[in-house]
Amino acid sequence: MIQKKICMLGAFAVGKTSLVRRFVKSIFDDRYLTSLGVKIDKKVVEVDGQEVMLLLWDLEGEDDFHTLSTSYLRGTSGYFLVVDGTRKETLGVALDIHKRIREQMGDLPFYLLANKSDLESVWEIGKDELDSVRAQGIPVRLTSAKLGSGVEESFAELAASLIADS
Amino acid sequence: MRHDSLNRLLSQLDTLVLERVGDDEFRPLDPAPPFLEQVFPGTSPDTGWNYRSSPFLEHFMVDARAHWAENTDQPLWSEYWTETDPQGEEHSFQAVVMSVDGVDCLVIFQQANMGAERRELLRHARSNLLLQRYLENEVDKRTQSLREREEEIVYRLLDAADYRDEETGTHIRRMSLYAALLAENLGWSSMMVDKIRLASSMHDIGKIGIPDGILLKAGRLSASEFAVMEKHTLIGGEILAGSKTDVLRMAHDIAVAHHENWDGSGYPHGLSGERIPTAARVVAVCDVFDALAHDRVYRVALPLDQVLDIMDKLRGTKFEPRLFDLFMRLLPRILEIKEQYKDSERHRPPLI
């Protein structure tokens, strides 16, 4: 079976682990349980009638206490940049990570997930900012790990891009 | 320490020590800890240790091999990572590779307690960061709301005062934006820029105390009338005096000193140079520009080249040269503001 490594990247508490849990186990927990280091989950998806094993590398979020070690990106086929729509600064963190990855690994399939769309009424990241991100050629998807909206579709889209890219 | 004691100690520490016996083969140096078979399926005392069941370790082995090849004394630590056993329970680990007396070793620690403590510590720290950020946001929102309320009160009072004056609300608006632009380009903090934006709008508040016959006179003022008119600076100063609010203290300085001249020839106190508060020096340049470039009851607006010619002649006498030069550098943006906030016709009481 084809295996593809996908990294979940972004600032802390943006919902990377929750997105993986929603996608892999269809569950959501409202409590904030910070990630420590790396956790890898697996899920088999079907792309164009072909089974693909996704290895989802959930990497500890970036903050003052932790900076992403890019060695863990080695061998990645694609990635998600996750931002929390209610915290403007997480967009900057995600774009900074994206820049570092491109410098080190070139162009890989990826999506920027604007998470917590269930809280869109209190988002600090406005439509204009997301439009400006899109204008830079960055594909943006709105997700809610809590409600599950946009999650399955985003993983499916990235999986399809990975197969098309290989 | 005896070998069996060491083995017992390592076993109790939930630590697996492996010796590298081939490029890809490892031999346990201590009795297998309980987590081994549970977390790394395919591993048994007979078949040896199967690290390939862990994508994380498989990845780390690439770095480990490079590290062993360097033959260094320094250990190489992995990140913490989490494995899930068949029962769905999560276990945290950390690995380290090193060479001891020419033997390549891999040590895996199960971070049962330490991992949980570290995670809890991080969770607290990050929750505090989120809380701190939330509180800062709330303070910002409240501050912004207070500032807007403060501005609204000031602008409404000014509007009432302006009702009997020739100066319109747009003059006040332009003035405050010119002043803020200059302050920003002087390197002032955003808080100070906000202050001068609001404080400068009150520069002529003292005109409220000048009789209509002088304030609204269409022709030139006589010397005695001008002496009365000059008093608007002191009246403004009295209105704004004694406040504990920074913005009103700055407004006071501006109201009193915006007609002082760099060479000491101005009024009301004949201050010169840096004895004139900087905010008042900034407003002086902006006020003269806006007054010359717009209609007044006693004359029509002058063409831009004439305005600039007059102002250039005042450089070093009325205006601080550095501020006038800055104003000229910012002229394109000044003209944008002028264009954006044009005077509009509005109802005024008939002149008496």
Task: Describe what you observe in this structure.
The complex is a heterodimer of chains A (166) and B (352). Chain A is an alpha/beta fold and 166 residues long. Chain A has one domain (2-165): P-loop containing nucleotide triphosphate hydrolases (Rossmann fold). Chain A has 4 helices and 6 strands, in the order E-H-E-E-E-H-E-H-E-H. Chain A starts with a strand and ends with a helix. The model of chain A has no long low-confidence stretch (mean pLDDT 90). The radius of gyration of chain B is 38 Å and the shape is rod-shaped. In chain B, helix 5 crosses helix 11, helix 10 packs across helix 11 (278-293) and helix 11 (278-293) packs antiparallel against helix 12 (304-313). In chain B, strands 1, 2, 3, 4, 5 and 6 form a 6-stranded antiparallel sheet that branches. Chain B is of the alpha+beta class and 352 residues long. Chain B has helices spanning 3-12, 35-39, 55-70, 112-162, 169-185, 190-199, 212-215, 223-230, 232-240, 246-257, 278-293, 304-313, 321-329, 331-340, and strands spanning 15-20, 26-28, 76-77, 81-84, 90-100, 103-110. Residues 346-352 of chain B have low confidence and may be disordered. Chains A and B meet through strand 2 of A and helix 3, strand 4, strand 5 and helix 4 of B.
Keywords:
heterodimer, A: 166 residues, alpha/beta, Rossmann fold, 6-stranded mixed β-sheet, 4 helices, 6 strands, globular, B: 352 residues, alpha+beta, Beta-Lactamase, Hypothetical protein af1432, 2 domains, 6-stranded antiparallel β-sheet, 14 helices, 10% strand, disordered C terminus
